[in-house]
Specification:
The chain crosses the membrane at residues 6-21, 28-47, 59-75. The chain is mostly helical. The chain has helices spanning 2-24, 27-47, 57-81. It is flat and about 45 Å long. The model has no long low-confidence stretch (mean pLDDT 88).
């Protein structure tokens, strides 16, 4: 049940960032929306498994991709400012 709540929260966050991206056109918000969308899909995939074992490497690699997008968005935003 908690995985579903986290997936829902990630989906809502993705929709908020997508709305901010559409109104501003700043790709910083697009990267954040993609990151939260990937996280939501990952959580739904984890919940859909018969055995909820999030110790599998593929779940961590997907989370690494998601968090890497956030780091890239921050670095990209700071690099473009200078």
């Amino acid at each position: 049940m908690l995985i579903g709540a986290i997936a829902t929260a990630s989906s809502v966050a993705a929709l908020f960032f997508l709305r901010f991206w559409r109104s501003s056109g700043d790709r910083f918000f697009l990267f954040f929306a993609l990151s939260f969308f990937i996280d939501a899909v990952n959580r739904v995939a984890l919940a859909g498994r018969a055995v909820n074992n999030d110790g599998q490497p593929e779940y961590y690699l997907i989370r690494l991709l998601s968090y890497g997008l956030i780091v890239y968005a921050i670095l990209d935003k700071n690099r473009r400012r200078k």
